[in-house]
Structures are given as structure tokens and as C-alpha cells.
Amino acid sequence: MGISRFHSLATKILLVFSVVFSPSLFAKSPIYTAFFSDLAVSGYDTVAYFTEGKPVKGESSFSTEYQGAKWLFSSQAHLDKFKAEPQKYAPQYGGYCAWAVANNDTAKGDPLQWYLQDGKLYLNYDAEIRAKWLKDKDALIIKADANWPAVLH
User: Fold this and answer.
1) Cα 129 from Cα 23, distance rounded (Å)
2) Which of 140, 57, 66, 51 is nearest to 103 (CA)?
3) pLDDT tier at 1 (50, 70, 90 boundaries)?
4) Which of 100, 115, 124, 134 has the most CB atoms at less than 10 Å from its CB?
């Protein structure tokens, strides 16, 4: 193989790698979903946190699409509320762990580790992280708000 053919082949390989491994391809979805799932909040009804004060599993018969994810609800009334004001009921930071976002990172949000503050839903990775977050949540919310959505890239 001549030098010019080798150079041409190497250039093509580098071009393919630059497209395939482009940083923009590694950007995370604005809504956290599990690896092989498209369900937001692991299928929990986000309106229920506000109306019932607890996590409630949604049903596939009451679903909608929002920001590239599928959202489930426990009733038609909850689905209707979400569709009317999704930004009001969707968890902050797309359902990623609020503590992680405050620390300029992302991690899964566990729908059983939640907190409502000022009419906003926050999720955390697990009970231990939630306890850390609750100790300084006001300052951490300010940090997370400043980091969001840049942490997705």
C-alpha cells in the first residue's frame, strides 16, 4: 500500500471516529430514563406527589410523551393535569438526582427518594444521598439550578 493510499485510509478512519465518538453523541437525555427504558420517573405518576403526597405507580392506559420520554399516570385526571402543565409536575433536572446535579454531575433519580419544595419535585439517587441533600437543600438547589442543563453535555 502506498503512502497516499495509507494516508487516505487513515483520514477516512479518523473521520468515522470523529463522527461516531463526537461529544454531542454522548449528551444525556433531558429526561432521565433507565438504560433500556423510555419511562420517565420509572413509571411513577408525577402528579400524585403533589395531589396525594406520595409516589404512586402509573398505568400504561394513562400515558403521554413529553421531552422524548413516556410518562405514566394513575388516572385520567392526573394525565390531564400533566398535559395542561407538564413543567409544573415534571421533576426538576429531568428526574436526575438533584444532589448529583448540584455537584455538577448526573445520576439516576429514585422516585421513592423525593421531596417537594416551593411547588417543585426533586428526586435523589438513594436514601443516603437524599439525607445529604436535605441537610443543605436550599444551597444545593441554587447550585443545581446553575448547573442545569449544562451537566447533560
Assistant:
1) 29
2) 140
3) low
4) 124
Sequence spans of domains, the chain:
30-90, 91-153
**DSSP string over 93-146:** GGGSBHHHHHTT---PPEEEEEEEETTEEEEESSHHHHHHHHHTHHHHHHHHHH
- CA–CA distance, 69 with 59 (Å, rounded to integer): 15
Grid cell for residue 101: 446535579
95-to-11, 39, 57, 68 alpha-carbon distances in Å: 41, 11, 15, 13
* Cell 385526571, residue located: 77
Beta partners for 41?
none
